[in-house]
Design goal:
This protein is an all-beta fold. It is built from no helices and 7 strands. The strands form 2 sheets. The protein has a 4-stranded antiparallel beta sheet with strand order 1-2-3-4, with no helix packed on it. The chain has a 3-stranded antiparallel beta sheet with strand order 5-6-7, with no helix packed on it.
Length: about 70
Amino acid sequence: MIFPYQNYLFLGANDGVYIFDNSNPASPNFISKFEHVRSCDPVFVSDDVAYVTLNGNGGCAGFENQLDVL
C-alpha cells in the first residue's frame, strides 16, 4: 500500500514501512524504514504520526493483529 502525505511517500510492505522523500516525483529518495514482523501492512499518516496496522490474516503470515504508532 502507498500512502502519499505532503512531500513523502509511505509504502507499507510485508516486512516494514518504507519512507521516501517525494519532493522530486521523478526520483523519490529513500529516507528510512521501520521494520516489523512479516505481516500485511496498511499504513495511514496524519500530521506527524504514522499508524501501521499489522494483519496476519489472508496469506500474510501467522502473526497476531497489531497497531504500531510511529
